[in-house]
Amino acid sequence: TQLLEQSPQFLSIQEGENLTVYCNSSSVFSSLQWYRQEPGEGPVFLVTVVTGGEVKKLKRLTFQFGDARKDSSLHITAAQPGDTGLYLCAGKRQGSSNTGKLIFGQGTTLQVKP
Amino acid sequence: DAGVTQSPTHLIKTRGQQVTLRCSPISGHKSVSWYQQVLGQGPQFIFQYYEKEERGRGNFPDRFSARQFPNYSSELNVNALLLGDSALYLCASSVTRVAGYTFGSGTRLTVV
Question: Touching check for A109 and chain B: CB below 8 Å?
Fold first, then answer.
């Protein structure tokens, strides 16, 4: 059982469309991070959300942390082919003694067609 | 500035053999973490080291071990390799809790 469930697992859209990726859990997280990974490379850090209800924007990407700090979403406006990749959410469990441990979701593969 | 560097980039080993993977963090980063990423899944936490001490361990067997050196570089060792150990092994360094992790490009290990 995945502690962080991402949906959808795969998404194929046309350039210019909007999309939302969800990251859900039954557990509370002290923070959630989002990464983008391309084939053959390591994940690249995008953002951290820490406070319940927090919204952060990174150009056309909008990240939100749920009020209860159990879920997060990533919304991309007017997607471009350069947004293609594997999007990963990762969190640190609230109250965990394993403070260095990031728990990753299984990822959402996004393909943006020109 | 150089990012997180890992070596080797690719490795093929036979079942039962031992392997050592290496990682150099970003200059100034004292924390190094190791993750295993199996194809089609998100990375799984193996170890974290900070100031040469183990600060976290994931659910991996004792065949997996690691250490951090005085210059903050790190090695991950895996003994008695199994086919299921085939994966991308990622090293990440970080400065603070909210700064996020910088990952290396990984070492692709194939066990045959």
Answer: no
